[in-house]
Write a structure and sequence with these properties.
13-stranded mixed beta sheet; about 15% helix; 13 strands; 4 helices; mainly beta; Porin; about 250 residues; globular
Length: about 250
Amino acid sequence: MTSFYVRDGARFVATPSTVGPWDPKLQHGSPVAALLASRMAAASALRVAHFSMDFLGPVPVAALDVTTSLDRPGKKIELRSAIASLDGKPRARASAWLVSTAEGRARDVKIEEPVPPLPENAATTYFENVPRFGYGDALEWRFAEGHFAEMGPAAVWSKLRVAIVEGEPVSPLERVLAMIDSANGISAELDVRQFLFVPVNLTVSLMRLPEGEWVGMRAETQIASAGVGTTRARIFDARGTLGHAMQTLYVERR
């Protein structure tokens, strides 16, 4: 497929490229995040500085209705929200703080941090003994540290191979959101064949947007024995740090 979604009137029909590793009938969270973020960003002249999304239930590979609203208007700062629904039932709810930007209004502070070099070779396999899935193939993954099939922290560069919505150019914001909900997957601490460790939410704060097609992250997961985990990620491009992300995980044995 050439996109995550195809427009059908006011709805967005999910393609097989949205399928995640947990169930062939369910979407990965990253395409949903990118879709909702793009709708909010398109409605404003300001830039998304903070994005958060709550999963209100599994998101099937189906046609989604997306609604947006302006919750706090402002010339310099505004708050918007978006909901993805299926048959009238909300499946994901997102909000975004958007701010005005002006180059030179401040100086860079601890942004141009060292980042791992972009490896020459892309990952050709994903989780061990897990069938290939559409979302995994929709991005090119190049690991500087770790791998899908290895436990522990990892650093990876990614590049989108598809559009978010068919016929629409991909924005720098979408490149980040299309990648970031996979942070718990690249930094898995449990065997995906034996455990579920699915995000219930996603929070992303961005100091700036990426430059170029390649966006990277370094992620680390921690899990408590009661079945709750957190994943933290530093997001970067070739210039340095862009921002940070965090997921809260629900963990249980399959």
